[in-house]
Each structure stands twice: as structure tokens, then as C-alpha cells.
């Protein structure tokens, strides 16, 4: 009863209920106007126009197929649904501010020099191409003089974070998809409030949809009363609109610009296994010291300035303390307004450049045809391709779609593992003991095309060894999936998998 009461009183429940009611009323009036009033011809014209519009857009083919199918199967409703839910707009002002800020800082003179030095150090042609591609798209170079620490668990991560937060002297910047009330956030908040009293500039960005069930409504007001400068990314509005699709899925913690963290971990109890919801929560994070920190601080400030009228001199936020050199580190952010899916392209480059193996962890395995073909071709070319997904799902319907993608990959020789102790949330790519990517980007449409994400590419860094050790431990705790597993499930469940898979790019 307590769990039911919590669900019925949650903001998410009432938001979903309101959206469903709004959608039902819209459908009723559309069909009333079409068939009772004879206006169905105009709805058909709208769906035909939407079909032509979608066909001519530079868009992922899977996304196009879904909306063309909806407009064709439901010509009365499909066109209107696209205008409300499918047309990607976050708001002209926010989009313009983001573009203006990024473009004004795209090529900082000091970073041009950093990138030229980095290219001279990269040995493999594939690494040069990847690093150059990232830099040309984002203006973020590969840095030397950056120390890296890898955390294979949330428990290790949070213990280290608390120590570093206590050392802050100038500023603390936090950008997270989820902050949730509980032990982890309470301890973090206590430190932040003390630091505010000491004169430290504390700023926080959190995603409203990501945190909708984890904190009270208008929680930003509470934080502002503590002196924490707070901005809410894309607040949930109780009306159907395409802006609901865009979420800030990044995780950034910058302490004086000298120490930074990122990875898959949010600021809530389940990420430290203080609350057990889906078995053991397997995640990871990285800590940077030195020049590479600047890119994480820069990404935070880009988002901060896009959410309000503020212009900041980036150069004043560069790290000042020297750090030892440990290979090259390149951080890059992605967002829905890039002309191409950078996160997916970086993953594709890792797959296509591999000579011996590619190992991957992802909580959601929903690749498009391009990524599926690359994984299959790599495996069929003799590359050891392994992918680890969760055994315990956090979203059952999404897990069904993940499992529906196993068969084609397994038939091509890809080894699919499920992490048996619980839920694996880390997002990692590792190839040939030479390069790795760790970050926030899942292997699904939302991460590639709709979310604000970030990743960290490592070239020749000692952290690659730590990532490999973590993979080997994960394999030992995972079960290898066999071909034909889908044939053994209930036919209704199987039909549901493929139905949801068809429409997953639009969800």
C-alpha cells in the first residue's frame, strides 16, 4: 500500500496522467472533426505534407520510417502527432543561445596549438582521424598533462568526491541528469551549503524529467535559498510538445576547474547501492586532474549560458595546477542540434578501426541499422566483439527491445552477455588495448539523437588498463546468451518486443 500511495502521489504519475488525458481529448476531437464534420480531407493533406517533409529531412532512416508508417496507417491522426511529438524543437531562444555561445568559443587559440601537438603524438592513423573529427565538430582538443583515475563502482566514486568537494576554494559546478533525495544527496548537499558559506561559487544544473520522481517540485527554489545557483534543464510543461524529448543526460562535476568527474553515475542512492532497486547497480566514473578538466568545465558553462542571458570568459576557468602526462584525453559533448550523430559516429569509428577486439557495456542495446551492420561486419571479419547488457532491467519495456536485438548480432558471431548480479549502467567502449571511450552515451536512439551527452576518449592512457580489468571482472559475473533464445518466449511477449522495437526511434 505504501508503494502504491507513493506512485499515486508522485509528480511523474500525475504528469503522465495529464498527458494521457490531453492526448485522449485531442484524438477525440480529431476524429469528431474528421468524420462527424467531414474535415477528414484536411487531415489527410496534413499527413501527406508531413510524409514529404520527413522524407526530405536529414534524419535517421529508422526515425523516418516510424513517422511515415504512422502517417500512412493513421492518415487522420499521424500528421498532427508528428507536429506535436516528432518535430524536434527545444525553443528558438534556447537553441539560438546555445549555438551562439558554442560558435563564439569554437576555436580557442590555445586549443588549436594543443590539438596540433596531440596529433603529432598519436601513433595510429585511426586515432588521428577520430581525434581530428571530434575536434573539428566540437572545438575540443585532445589534451596532454592530464591524470586519470578510474572508478569501477559508485561506492569508490562517492567516497573520493566527498573528499575533493571539501577542498574546493573557488567554485563547484554540477550538471546531472538525476539528483535524488537520500543519503548520497544529503551528504553532498551538506558540503555544498558549507562551501557556499565559505564564499565558494556553487552552481547546479539538473534535468527536470530525469529528477521528476526523485525530488519535490520547485526544488530549485529550495536550493537557491541555500545560496546554490540553480538552473533546471527543460522544465516539464503539462502540455504535449516536442521539447519533452530533449533531456540533459550529462554528468559533470568540476571543482575549481582542477579536479573533474564524469561517467554514468548520478547523485542518488541507487548509484552507490545504498538503495537496491534492480539488483547490484554496476556503474563507473572517471576523475581528471590537469588540462583535460577544462573541456568538462567548458561543457558545463555552455549549458549554463544557454539557459539564461549570461556570457562568461572561458579562459579564466582553465586549470592552473600542473599534472603528470598519462596519454591523451579528449572530452566531447553532443547535442541534438549537431548536423550528425557524433556519439554514434565515434562508436562506429572505434568498431571500424578495431583489429583484434571491441568490448562494449551499455544498459540499453537499441542500435540503428548502421550500428548493427558495423557490429556484425566487425565480428564476421574476425574481430572479437562482446557486448554486456543488464540481466535486471530498470525499464522492462526497453529491456524487451534490447533483447529483441540479440538474435541478429549473435548469428553474426557477436557475443552478448547479461550481467547477472543486477543492472549494468556503465557506457564503455574498449578496443585493442589502445583506445577507450567512457561517458554517458547509451547505444540507443535517444542518446544519439535527442539527449545532451558527453564522452571521454582515451588514447594510450593507463586508464585503458583499468577499463580492461573492469571488463574482465564483468565477464566473469555475466552469462553468455545463446542463439534462439527469442524462440523460447511466449508468442505474445515476442510480438510485443517487435512492436515496441518498430516504434522505439519515436519514443
Structure description:
It is a single chain. The protein has three domains: 2-86, no CATH class; 92-327, Endonuclease, Chain A; 342-506, Endonuclease, Chain A. 46% of the residues lie in helices and 18% in strands. The chain is built from 19 helices and 18 strands. Strands 5, 10, 11, 12, 13, 15, 16, 17 and 18 form a nine-stranded mixed sheet that branches. A seven-stranded mixed sheet has the order 1-9-7-6-2-3-4, with helices on both faces. The model has no long low-confidence stretch (mean pLDDT 88).
Q: Which helices and strands appear, and what pairs or packs with what?
A:
Layout: H1 2-8, H2 11-36, H3 40-56, H4 61-73, H5 78-86, H6 92-104, H7 109-121, H8 125-138, E1 146-151, H9 154-166, E2 171-176, H10 183-197, E3 201-207, H11 219-225, E4 229-233, E5 247-248, E6 252-255, E7 259-263, E8 280-282, E9 285-290, H12 293-306, E10 328-334, H13 342-353, E11 357-361, H14 369-380, E12 384-390, H15 396-404, H16 406-411, E13 415-419, E14 422-424, E15 427-431, E16 435-439, H17 445-450, E17 451-459, H18 463-476, E18 478-480, H19 491-503
Parallel strand pairs: 2-3, 3-4, 5-17, 8-14, 11-12, 12-13
Antiparallel strand pairs: 1-9, 2-6, 6-7, 7-9, 10-17, 11-15, 13-18, 15-16, 16-17
Helix pairs in contact: 2-3, 3-4, 3-5, 4-5, 6-12, 8-13, 9-10, 13-14, 15-19
Amino acid at each position: 500500500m505504501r508503494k502504491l500511495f507513493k506512485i499515486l502521489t508522485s509528480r511523474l504519475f500525475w504528469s503522465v496522467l495529464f498527458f494521457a488525458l490531453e492526448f485522449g481529448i485531442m484524438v477525440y476531437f480529431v476524429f469528431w472533426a474528421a468524420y462527424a464534420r467531414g474535415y477528414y480531407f484536411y487531415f489527410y493533406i496534413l499527413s501527406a505534407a508531413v510524409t514529404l517533409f520527413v522524407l526530405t529531412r536529414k534524419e535517421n532512416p529508422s526515425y523516418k520510417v516510424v513517422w511515415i508508417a504512422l502517417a500512412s496507417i493513421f492518415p487522420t491522426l499521424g500528421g498532427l502527432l508528428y507536429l506535436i511529438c516528432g518535430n524536434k524543437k527545444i525553443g528558438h531562444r534556447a537553441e539560438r543561445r546555445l549555438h551562439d555561445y558554442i560558435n563564439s568559443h569554437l576555436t580557442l587559440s590555445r586549443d588549436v596549438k594543443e590539438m596540433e601537438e596531440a596529433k603529432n603524438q598519436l601513433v595510429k592513423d585511426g586515432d588521428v582521424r577520430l581525434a581530428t573529427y571530434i575536434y573539428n565538430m566540437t572545438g575540443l582538443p585532445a589534451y596532454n598533462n592530464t591524470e586519470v583515475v578510474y572508478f569501477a563502482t559508485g561506492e569508490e566514486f562517492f567516497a573520493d568526491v566527498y573528499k575533493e568537494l571539501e577542498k574546493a576554494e573557488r567554485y563547484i559546478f554540477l550538471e546531472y541528469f538525476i539528483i535524488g533525495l537520500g543519503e548520497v544527496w544529503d551528504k553532498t548537499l551538506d558540503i555544498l551549503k558549507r562551501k557556499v558559506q565559505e564564499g565558494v561559487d556553487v552552481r547546479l544544473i539538473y534535468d527536470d524529467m530525469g529528477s521528476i520522481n526523485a525530488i519535490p517540485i520547485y526544488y530549485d527554489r529550495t536550493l537557491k535559498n541555500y545560496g546554490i545557483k540553480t538552473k533546471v534543464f527543460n522544465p516539464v510543461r503539462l502540455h504535449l510538445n516536442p521539447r519533452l524529448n530533449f533531456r540533459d543526460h550529462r554528468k559533470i562535476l568540476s571543482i575549481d576547474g582542477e579536479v573533474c568527474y564524469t561517467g554514468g553515475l548520478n547523485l542518488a542512492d541507487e548509484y552507490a547501492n545504498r538503495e537496491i532497486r534492480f539488483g547490484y547497480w554496476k556503474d563507473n566514473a572517471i576523475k581528471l586532474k590537469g588540462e583535460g578538466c577544462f573541456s568538462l568545465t567548458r561543457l558545463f558553462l555552455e549549458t549554463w549560458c544557454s539557459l539564461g542571458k549570461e556570457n562568461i570568459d572561458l579562459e579564466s576557468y582553465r586549470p592552473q595546477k600542473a599534472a603528470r602526462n598519462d596519454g591523451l584525453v579528449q572530452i566531447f559533448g553532443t547535442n541534438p542540434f549537431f548536423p550528425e550523430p557524433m556519439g554514434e559516429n565515434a562508436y562506429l569509428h572505434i568498431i571500424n578501426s578495431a583489429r583484434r577486439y571491441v568490448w562494449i557495456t551499455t544498459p540499453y542495446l537499441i542500435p540503428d541499422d548502421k550500428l548493427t551492420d558495423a557490429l556484425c561486419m566487425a565480428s564476421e571479419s574476425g574481430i572479437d566483439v562482446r557486448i554486456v547488457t543488464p540481466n535486471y532491467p530498470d525499464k522492462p519495456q526497453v529491456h524487451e527491445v534490447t533483447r529483441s536485438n540479440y538474435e541478429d548480432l549473435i548469428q553474426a558471431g557477436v557475443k552478448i552477455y547479461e550481467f547477472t548480479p543486477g543492472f549494468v549502467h556503465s557506457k564503455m567502449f574498449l578496443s585493442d588495448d589502445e583506445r577507450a571511450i567512457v561517458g554517458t552515451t547509451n547505444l540507443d536512439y535517444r542518446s544519439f539523437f535527442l539527449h545532451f551527452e558527453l564522452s571521454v576518449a582515451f588514447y594510450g592512457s593507463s586508464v585503458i588498463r583499468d577499463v580492461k580489468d573492469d571488463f574482465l571482472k564483468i565477464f566473469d559475473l555475466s552469462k553468455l546468451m545463446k542463439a534462439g533464445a527469442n524462440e523460447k518466449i511466449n508468442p505474445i511477449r515476442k510480438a510485443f518486443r517487435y512492436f515496441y522495437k518498430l516504434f522505439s526511434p519515436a519514443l
